[in-house]
Specification:
Order of helices and strands: EHEHEEEHHHHHHEEHEEEEEEEHHH
Largest sheet: 5 strands, antiparallel
CATH architecture of the largest domain: 2-Layer Sandwich
Number of domains: 3
Number of helices: 12
Strand order of the largest sheet: 4-5-10-6-7
Strand content: 25-35%
């Protein structure tokens, strides 16, 4: 498996990367960690004439608290996210999600910005980012803008990024008290991609009832999809086994289900419900402290 011929451009700054993207247009691809793009290039599913390496740009790998948000640089690796005490304190779903991506080699090179920009429907991180209702900062030839995670993912390998734009930062709003989050998935045994997965975030009131819920299904559909029916079924309820199981049974509603050698639409719908139940129960347990 050998990629088609391409020209390699190491960028030393965000501005240089954007200039190169503007210069080469649709013939160019950004390379961050490379664990999504390089395999597709080897299979010649992607054949960019120009590869712009942003992996050496300084100042894009960090995790830091800034007021009421935690900011994560686009080049922050999964391994760094997995080890972060700050993220573990506020958003257990992120280290948990990172810990089940690929293998140690992938986690040490793959980046959060690369994952959400690639928008593979079976990837793990896009679902967690959307469940946490993050804000995604992007920069391009027309300057910087912020896109809500709910508006960022548009379809299979498709995002709201405009030509010449790149992700620079993901910002996670700090959760209210008594909030828990979790990620569970049924993994493909070879690739470790999600056949069906769920990222869940729940907030409990003083009486233990659910006051907020954010549930996103990944792997089963053509993009990370908010399970609105599940969220509605949780609101105002005590999150016991029976209530959560009933709510999770709606996990496949609204999904444009995928079907392939790893599972039929019916199988993925059922597994989405199973993963949703497990993730919600774990998130609720964490919310109770």
């Amino acid at each position: 498996m050998i990629p088609a011929t391409f020209e390699y451009h190491p960028a030393s700054s965000v501005d240089e990367a954007i200039a190169l993207l503007s210069q080469y247009g649709d013939d160019a691809k950004l390379l961050a960690g490379g664990h999504s793009l390089i395999p597709t290039m080897k299979l010649r599913l992607a054949q960019p004439a120009h590869l712009i390496d942003i992996g050496r740009i300084p100042g894009l790998s960090y995790i830091r608290e800034e007021g009421n948000v935690v900011a994560v640089g686009a080049l922050t690796t999964y391994a760094t996210i997995e080890r972060s005490e700050v993220l573990r304190r506020y958003f257990a779903v992120l280290p948990e999600c990172a810990s089940v991506i690929g293998d140690p080699q992938v986690r040490n090179r793959g980046t959060i910005g690369g994952s959400i920009s690639h928008a593979d429907p079976s990837a793990d991180m896009p679902g967690a980012v959307r469940a946490l209702k993050a804000e995604i900062r992007v920069r391009g030839p027309n300057g910087e803008r912020t896109v809500a995670a709910d508006d960022f993912f548009l379809g299979t390998f498709t995002t709201a990024l405009e030509p010449g734009e790149m992700v620079t930062e993901i910002r996670f709003p700090l959760p209210p008290a008594r909030t828990g989050s979790a990620y569970t998935k049924l993994a493909n045994k070879a690739s470790h991609y999600a056949v069906a997965g769920c990222a869940a975030v729940v907030t409990l009131g003083a009486d233990g009832a659910c006051t907020a819920a954010s549930v996103v299904i990944t792997g089963a559909g053509t993009m990370p999809t908010r399970a609105s029916a599940v969220e509605a079924a949780l609101m105002g309820k005590q999150l016991d086994e029976a209530t959560v199981a009933e709510a999770a049974s709606h996990a496949a509603e609204g999904l444009e289900l995928m079907e392939d050698i790893h599972g039929s639409k019916q199988y993925r719908a059922q597994m989405a419900a199973v993963m949703a139940r497990r993730a919600i129960l774990k998130a609720a347990e964490r919310a109770r402290g």
